[in-house]
Amino acid sequence: MIGIVDYNAGNITSVERALRSLEIDFLCSKNPDDLHGCDKLIFPGVGDAAYSMRQLKTTGFDKFLRQAASENRPLLGICLGSQIIFEHSEEGDTECLGLVRGKIRYFESLDKNIISKGFKIPHMGWNNFEIKNGGCPILAGVPEKSDFYFVHSYVICPDDTGVVMAQADYGVKVPAVIQSGNIFACQFHPEKSGEAGLAILRNFAAL
Q: Structure pTM?
């Protein structure tokens, strides 16, 4: 059973719709206690890092996610959820969950000329990626040049580049998929990315 973490800062409906289309059983809850029996977790997110961390602390999901990670339950972060699993975000100078070592940086922190080069921020729309470091189980059978739907202004910068399993190009290199042990994350929205995105969710459910 997959548990969807609903902490008032995630795009829950589209994730639920995608899992139903795949006939994957799930439980969505705002209460961490309801999800203790789930063997896998999806951690979506949209919006602001500082607000999201406040919501995680208010609901108790911050402690719950750290515990789940320590128990080696597979966890899939999506969009903002893929960022705040790291240690710190430049967005609001926010201390995050610290499940994976690294920082989240604004595009212009990485390249101050990115906008003058013709790249709009946020990075919004369809982009493809290349597989890195041999890929990972959630990318099994996903064609390398498939397009995925991105919406973000900040970039994952892991301390260990070995956790980057796929990488997009948007003026700078954008980690698109990461894996660190039992923790997986997609910077894009797999639930909004057609058949290739659904394949990622199907692979995650099969772990």
A: 0.96
Cα separation of 133 and 137, whole Å? 12
- From the list 38, 136, 152, 191, the catalytic residue is 191
Of the listed 38, 123, 152, 189, which one is catalytic? 189
Mean pLDDT of the chain: 96
- pLDDT tens column, 136-193: 999 999 988 899 999 999 999 999 999 999 999 999 999 999 999 999 999 999 999 9
Is the CB of residue 18 less than 8 Å from the CB of residue 55? no
Which one from 28, 38, 79, 186 is the annotated catalytic residue?
79
Active site residue 108: no
Classify burial at 106, counting beta carbons within 10 Å of its beta carbon; exposed 0-12, middle 13-18, buried 19 or more.
Answer: middle
- Judge whether 191 counts as a catalytic residue: yes
Compute how many other C-beta atoms are within 10 angstroms of the C-beta atom of residue 163.
23
Contact 172, 119 (CB under 8 A): no
Match 């922190």 to its residue by tokens.
109
Return left, alpha or beta for 118; rule: phi > 0 is left, psi -120 to 50 is alpha, else beta. left
How far from 149 is each of 25, 96, 137, 195, CA to CA, in Å? 24, 24, 20, 12
pLDDT tier for residue 11 given thresholds of 50, 70 and 90: confident
DSSP state string for 50-106: HHHHHHHHHHTHHHHHHHHHHTT--EEEETHHHHTTSSEETTTTEE---SSSEEEEE
CA distance 132 to 117: 25
